[in-house]
C-alpha cells in the first residue's frame, strides 16, 4: 500500500505516467495498479515534474534588508526547495537554520564569505569580515544545510577591495571540500573579465543576464571572450533575476546565440515578490518560455540542473528512491505583459501556473491551486 498515488500525470515530454510515493520517497513510476492510501487523478491534463528548486532566493526572516519567509517564496508558489544565496554568514547562519526548521519548503544556504552576512549592502568592503576560520567552523557545524559559498562581487559590495574578496573565496572553497561557489556580478569594479578568469568548473555566475556594464556581452553584442573560456572550463550560468539584475535584451541575445542558463532562479525576497519585477519563480520561468527556451529546457533549469549545480543528489529527477518532491502545474495560454529589471516590458503568451506541490511525500496546494480548488490530497 503506497502513501500517495498520482494517476496519469503528464510529463514535460507529454508522456503519461503514474507516480507512487512511500515514506517521503518516489517508490514507483509507470503503470501502477497497487493500492494507495490517497489517490489523486490527474487525467493526463496536469503536468508533473520533479519539485522545482530555486537556486537563488533570500529568505532569512530576520535579514534587515533582504528578508522573506521560506514558504512564501517556496511551497506557496510550487517551489519545493530554496537555496538562500548569502543572506547569512558564519555569525548568523545557525539562527537562520533554526528559524527555518518548521518550514514546509526544504531550505539550504550558500554561506556568505562575509561572516556578518547581508546586514548591510557592503559586506565585503571590510576585509576583517572575511574570516576563513569562521567559515570553516560554520561549514563543519551545518554540513547538511550549507551547500556552498556566496561572494557578491560588485562595486557597492566590495568597496575599495576590488577582486581580493574573490581570491579569498576561492581559497576558502579549497579549504572546504570544493563546495560550489556562487559569484554575484553587477556594477564594476571589479570587471567581469577579472572575475570570470578566476572561476573554475562548478562555480556559478549569478545575475548572468544583467543589463549593467558588467554584462556577459560586449558592446557589439558578442559573448565576452573571458566568459566563453569560463563556460568551456565548466563554469555555470544562473539567472538570479532580482530587482536589478535581469535584462530581456541581454537574455534574448544570449539565448539566440545558444548561451542558455544552467539554472533559472529568482533572487526573490518580499519586496520584489510583492511589488515586482520578480513575483515568483514561475513568473521568471514564463519569461524564458517567451524568449526562446522550450518547456523541457526551462523545467530542467529548476530541477535536474539545479540539483546538479548544488549537489543535491537526492533531488531534481523523477527517479525511484529520490525525495518525493514534485511540482504540479499547467501551461496557460494567456497573454500577460511582464517587466524585466530594466523596466522594459514584453508580452508573454504562455504562463506557467503552479497548482500544487508534493514535498517529502506530503501534498500542498499553491496559492493559485487553492483558488482553483485543484486537487484533494
Ligand atoms: Zn541575491
UniProtKB/TrEMBL annotation:
In-chain residues carrying the UniProt-annotated modification N6-carboxylysine: 150
Domain of life: Bacteria
GO molecular function: deacetylase activity; hydrolase activity, acting on carbon-nitrogen (but not peptide) bonds; metal ion binding
Keywords: Metal-binding, Zinc
Residues that, per the record, bind Zn(2+) 1: 56, 58, 150, 267
Chain positions recorded as Zn(2+) 2 binding sites: 150, 184, 207
Limits of the Amidohydrolase-related domain: 47-335
Site (Transition state stabilizer): 152
Keyword hit for Ribosomal protein: no
Segment forming the signal sequence: none
InterPro entries: Amidohydro-rel, Deacetylase_Atu3266-like, EF_0837-like, Metal-dep_hydrolase_composite, Metal_Hydrolase
NCBIfam families per record: EF_0837, PRK09237.1
PANTHER family: DIHYDROOROTASE-RELATED, IMIDAZOLONEPROPIONASE AND RELATED AMIDOHYDROLASES
Name the record gives this protein: Dihydroorotase
